[in-house]
Amino acid sequence: MWKKIAIVFAVVVVGFLGYAAMQPEDFAVQRSTDIKAPADRVAALIADFHAWEKWSPWEKMDPAMKRTFSGPSSGVGAVYEWSGNSEVGKGRMTVTAVDPAKSLHIKLEFIEPWTATNTTVFTFAQAGDVTKITWTMRGKNEGLMAKAMCVVMDMDKMVGGDFEKGLASLKSLAEKGG
Fold it and tell me: How many C-beta atoms lie closer than 10 Å to residue 20's C-beta?
């Protein structure tokens, strides 16, 4: 009897790992909203990490989070490091490219509770007095363990809601004049 249970368990584990190995290596999370404000006003709130405290959903998860800023106050080279509770962990963001009318790129490095480096891009498309902003995070599930984790934890479901909250806060802030 125990031998049959062990065989069934082994088949289930091997099947799960085989399924995990077939998962895509790349992932992306993306959300958009329309903001009744000029693209440069919206871009300024993102390019200046000091302003993130006003709209970022993760800032609200740990108001006691330790923050460190370095480099220029905003734009390319601006760096924001954080260390907080288990919900926000520890990491670093660096602005790598800015075109206030089109896009802003950030290198996002997670240090704790896991290590990963992702690319975050905010794109702006202005039509009249409305700017469509799209927030995208791209990364890789490198290795079998990362792929196995993504079988049970959907990155879009984990982070997408936070993007939606952040965009709603950013919209409110930008429409009030930032």
Answer: 18
- The helix/strand/coil state of 83 is strand
State how far Cα 138 lies from the chain centre. 8
Enter the tokens of residue 17.
């790992």
Check pLDDT > 90 for residue 119: yes
Average pLDDT, the chain: 85
Give the residue among 86, 93, 87, 89 at the shortest CA–CA distance from 70: 93
Overall residue count recorded for the chain in this entry: 178
Superfamily of domain 2-175: START domain (3.30.530.20)
pTM reported for the whole predicted model:
0.80
Which residue blocks in the chain are alpha helix, DSSP H?
2-21, 39-47, 52-55, 57-61, 144-152, 155-175
CA dihedral 31, 36, 38, 41 (to 10 degrees): -70
- SS3 of residue 38 by DSSP: coil
pLDDT in tens, 54-88: 999 988 888 899 999 999 999 999 999 999 998 88
